[in-house]
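Table S5 (text form). Sequence records supplied for joint modeling of the two-component complex.
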Amino acid sequence: MTSVTGEQVVETGAVVPVGRRSLVPIVGAIVFAIGAALVGLLVGPVHLGLGAITREALSHVPLLHVHSDMSATDKAILWQLRAPRVVLGLLVGGMLALAGGSYQGVFRNPLVDPYLLGVAAGAGLGATLAIAYGGGTVDSYDLLPLAAFLGAAVGVACSTVLGHAGGGSRNPAGLVLAGVTVVAFLTAVQTFVQQQHTQSLQEVYSWILGRLGTAGWHDVAISAPYIVISSAGLIAYRRVLDVLAVGDDEAASLGVNVRRTRLAVVVFATIGTAAAVAVSGLIGFVGIIVPHTIRLAIGSSYRIVLPLSLLVGGGFLVLADVIARTVVSPAELPIGVVTAFFGAPFFAIVLRTSRSFS
Amino acid sequence: MSGFVVSDLSVTLGGTEILHSVDADVASGEWVALIGPNGAGKSTLLRSIAGLCSYGGSIAIDGRDVANWSRREIARRIAFVPQAPLLPADMRVRDYVMLGRTPHIGEFAAEGAADFEAVDRAMRRLDLGHLAERRLRTLSGGEQQRAVLARTLAQDAPILLLDEPTNALDIGRQQQVLELVSLLRAQSELTVISAMHDLTLASQYADRLLLLAQGRLVAAGPPHEIATEALVATHYGANVRIVGEGGALAVVPVRRSG
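The corresponding structure-token record, covering 616 residues in total, follows.
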């Protein structure tokens, strides 16, 4: 039956716009992200029922007059512990996946991740300096995101300047090499500082592995503006990224300002990633696995890959966080370990399945 | 329809002068083939006209200097196909053809009904309707070539620049592609400039040949005046015989020894 429909489409030569084709996957991704968020709110040492959570949420909607029978403790667990953690997971995961997909498009390199140009190494150095020299732990937690954010910005700025000197805007490979150089240097400095302050090793290490554990509304508030603006900027470039897929010259001959586009995408992706890293540490793998899974399963057009990366990346990280805080409960696994441990085999399965279909 | 004039065009890349004071005049609706030995500057001339490299001198389309035109404005007048177009393997044919509409769609806007119509029309004209949903990597070489041409048609630019359009195709495919370009040119009143290595095909399809050698334009005129045994010997260092004329003109290499 389906083949008949297919033939009719062929005969009329009807052109189905990419936008309409992407509707089903987008709805699916929204459902996935909402489902992941619900799991994140439901799962934990204290049982909160789905009905209780729904009633509690609706009781805050004006004019509905829904009565919530949740205890004060449960309310605190829901609103002060789980909700900010879920929201931060959605923001950070979505941002990392979206930035990864954008970097891959703008550099036309499938192996690139959002940490390419020194975001992670710079943030790592900034965080290490904050932990080592920032005084007491309590104080340094306010300083930490700022230091990480500034470090990330400095790292990428160094790569960009160095890459530009090597013909970076005409030759993306020059920028990538500059990134490798800067990452190596910043990592060396960070290791040096770390060795000088061995008492802070544990704290630096736990930051590097990434966590949503300390997430409160404060972390959401300081990172959300950057992440929202960056995401909107990157999504706006989704169609232009498709044009870049035919190469710099052809894209230019189609009227695209390639240099300006590459710069804008790198700036948006970097700011968003830096904000995400500043509050959550270095959570690896999301920026590579999520966009590629979408490419293999749905399609390679950035008009689909970018919005889906945002939604699926967010949901993926929330689920990874649920695993991180339940498998060795009451202790917690670093979330970076979970994303890699479950992400890698999953990616391998996706790769195998899609190969056998093509 | 658009014609253009290239005056005193010079291009220097990495300290080496690639083109030296080239003057050329291409009439509206004309098919001009750029010929010349390897490294003569054919591709560079095409890239300058497409606005892809900086140059000295001037290029004017329909009497207007393009120096201050934006990339998008140039793209609405000139479609460019490089020697080996990069085809994103997983892109569907229809989406690839839609890329041709880029200069007509706002940078952050979505395509409109006119764009879908243009894509539809371009695919029908190149007989790609039944391949619209296929991914580029699943097409044959000839089908890929047609997809590239459909993209340039969707671009709706009056000037078509082709860098070695028959490169790496067998003799049948070469003929098919050039016949197709000839047909599209007649239907859409396109001005075509193609860089070509095959002197026989260049002579048979183009109205005029421009012979470049070492970055200079050394001869220009109708094929029977340019594809001559003397000029080919001088600039290519090749021993050839010219047989036939018009659509049957052939430049035949003749072995020197034996």
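Note: Chain B has a mean pLDDT of 92.
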